[in-house]
Specification:
heterodimer; A: six-stranded mixed beta sheet; four-stranded antiparallel beta sheet; 11 helices; globular; B: six-stranded mixed beta sheet
Chain lengths: 265, 253
């Protein structure tokens, strides 16, 4: 059975405006699917639907099966058991995702305590190991720091450490590097790639920068105005984009990157 | 040819903190673009504040058309206009677009005479059409526009007064790739058609390469490389520039 199955997902506002229309895809352990599209295409709403975290006033229809559980309409208690074990997420703005009043170590410790029941010495060791796994120098000092005391790249590493601490079967990464410098972005993407490869988790990677998404994902699903317009293996979509919106995405990426590449001897 | 803007060995410090810029010299020839690239905290935004006259260097000189800007701030204001990063906060939500775009014209007193209102409306309409916005945009409010369109409004405001230099600080960082490419096209069109000089602060080297003939690379407040973009980004000599070029995500070919 496929680990995550989204079929006919539609998201509407209370005023009956359709934001996501009839989107279907499947994702298994070890798979890496990239959701790509412009701002407002519905990428984040799909992620939030899977997590059962759609904001009030939006409702999802269709079916989302995650590890054998129907997510849509499931009670909060049920969803809570899925989050952390079956699925976790990293978002763009790690400053908003982390509690500003809590030391980073204590935040990483939370999922480890709840999901794995670790306490005391074992918990402290697991926190340090989690921070080491995202290649943070001096993890003990990092564990004592507050979010505002570290850089954006370090915060995003902590967020990834938290998300992967309990070895979820599926990681959703929603524009995880969009607010980082390209140098830091390259490091964080490399890290994500290694960690996902090591744990064998499935990855749903969301972004608008084709070069970034194509570098991490193996398959692409192109969204336009809430609808899936094209999907397939990365190489196929890049070499022969069929839908006009995909052609625009690929053409834009090639043209912008091309300006830089033509300069290299 | 005298550069339109130039800094000569400027050093900048906030309060008693460390140097934010050290010995920074850049030249901006008229009609050419200058890209200022570097990581967060390298001093890019501080350099734009110096060029906008919002901050004074501790030492060194800032020149407009070859003459020091001290005491010539009004000349600087008539030559240089900013476009900011966050198009969601840089436009006053309570003002209609025509009023926003006309703001520099009013505050600098660029339009006078009995037909002032008609002339303002004409200039606003021209600026909006230049940036590819429909005529009726003038009567609407910022919240009615997408991020890319808002950045077009900000660009219209910057060019409505016939300013020669536009300083844009990470103008695309909140926008998606397709929208970014459209705005890059808009700015290069304005450069070609109106001879607009664009100073672009960016961490995206692809955008720098597409838009600016010259590039300056900042690292921790110092210029590590400065010259023709094709040379600086095509054959980077400094290790920091090499690292920046290597980190640009590339499409599998």
């Amino acid at each position: 059975m496929t680990y995550l199955e989204v079929s006919g997902l539609t998201v509407r506002t209370a005023g009956d405006r359709t934001l996501v229309r009839d989107v279907s895809f499947a994702l298994d352990r070890g798979d890496r699917l990239g959701l790509i599209g412009a701002s407002g295409a519905g990428k984040t709403l799909i992620a939030l639907s899977i997590l059962g975290l759609l904001p009030r006033g939006l409702r999802a229809e269709g079916r989302i099966r995650l590890d054998g559980t129907d997510v849509l309409g499931a009670p909060e208690r049920r969803l809570n058991r899925l989050r952390g074990r079956a699925v976790t997420a990293v978002f763009q703005e790690s400053l908003a995702a982390l509690d500003p009043l809590m030391r980073l170590g204590a935040q990483v410790a939370q999922p480890l305590r709840h999901r794995q029941g670790l306490r005391g010495k074992a918990l402290r060791a697991a926190v340090v190991a989690a921070l080491e796994s995202v290649r943070l120098a001096d993890p003990e000092r990092m564990a004592r720091a507050y979010p505002h005391e570290v850089s954006g790249g370090q915060r995003q590493r902590v967020a990834i450490a938290m998300a992967l601490a309990c070895e979820p079967a599926l990681l959703i990464a929603d524009e995880p590097t969009s607010s980082l410098d390209t140098t830091v972005q390259a490091e964080v993407l490399g890290l994500l790639d290694r960690l996902i490869g090591r744990t064998g988790a499935g990855l749903l990677f969301i972004g608008h920068d084709l070069a970034v998404v194509a570098g991490v994902a193996r398959r692409l699903l192109v969204l336009d105005a809430g609808q899936a317009v094209e999907s397939g293996p990365v190489a196929g979509v890049l070499s022969a984009p069929a839908h006009p919106r995909t052609q625009e995405l690929v053409g834009t990426a090639r043209r912008l990157r091309g300006a830089l590449e033509r300069m290299s001897p | 040819m005298t550069p339109v803007l130039e800094t000569r060995a400027i050093t900048v410090r906030y309060r008693r903190g460390p140097d934010v810029l050290t010995d920074v010299s850049v030249t901006v020839p008229e009609g050419h673009g200058l890209a200022v690239v570097g990581e967060s905290g390298a001093g890019k935004t501080t350099l734009t504040r110096i060029l906008l006259g919002l901050l004074r260097p501790l030492s060194g000189a800032v020149l407009l058309d070859g003459a020091a800007i001290d005491g010539r701030l009004s000349a600087l204001r008539r030559a240089v206009q900013p476009v900011f990063q966050d198009c969601y906060s840089s436009l006053d939500p309570r003002q209609r677009v025509d009023r926003i775009v006309a703001e520099p014209l009013r505050s600098l007193g660029l339009v006078t005479g009995p037909d002032r209102r008609a002339e303002l409306a004409r200039r606003v309409a021209e600026a909006l059409s230049c940036v590819g916005l429909p005529e009726d945009a003038a009567r609407r409010y910022p919240h009615e526009f997408s991020g890319g369109q808002r950045q077009r409004i900000a660009i219209a405001r910057a060019i409505a007064g016939g300013h020669r230099v536009l300083i844009a600080d990470e103008p695309f960082s909140a926008l998606d790739a397709v929208t970014t490419a459209r705005l890059v096209d808009l700015l290069s069109g304005l450069r070609e058609r109106r001879g607009l000089t664009v100073i672009l602060v960016t961490h995206d080297l692809a955008v720098a390469a597409a838009l600016c003939a010259r590039t300056a690379v900042l690292e921790r407040g110092r210029i590590v490389e400065h010259g023709e973009t094709a040379a600086v980004l095509g054959r980077p000599r400094h290790p920091h520039t090499r690292k920046l070029v290597a980190s640009v995500p590339r499409l599998p070919s």
